[in-house]
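Example record

The entry below shows one chain as it appears in the dataset: sequence first, then structure tokens.
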Amino acid sequence: MRILFVCTGNTCRSPMAEALFETKVRESDVIEVQSAGIHKFKGFPVSPHAITVLAEYGIKYDRAPQEINPELIEWADLVLTMTKFHKYIAIALFPEIFNKTFTLKEFVGNQNSLNISDPVGKSLSTYRQCAQEIDSAINLLQHKLQIVSETSFSSFIFPTPQPLPPAISLLRWLIRLARLRNNTRH
């Protein structure tokens, strides 16, 4: 199973989710993990605080941020976003992923909040709290997938995605318009 974690710029939450989960499933030969951002901000590396927190977990992270793209979408069997907003944008960009895209917390069954809090621009302790929040959800994900892998990933039935808001068609239109404007400027 190939899992893609998605956040805003692939500089904080999704790299932490990727690294934490990859460490837990390192021995698995059936799970692959990557991360991406809805948008890649030129010149922005992975947050030093995220790298520090991962180091505290014993993880060395040295990948560069990447933007979600058609190749990653095709590669992924499961797309797990950090927030509902990321989920909606990802689906607006790639409508074909609707049935395989969930917030991380939605997928693992946490209904209290579907969003992982955003640490960007905040203190190291906030990044630690964010990593703990991600790690808790990752533990549930690992447990859920471990049960599935004992049978077969091919027989895994994804949960029913939550309905999209009515504004998603407007969002798709705005994204197309923005792409058009960007293409005419170059």
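Notes for this example: The two ends are 38 Å apart (CA to CA). The CA atoms of residues 160 and 181 lie 35 Å apart.
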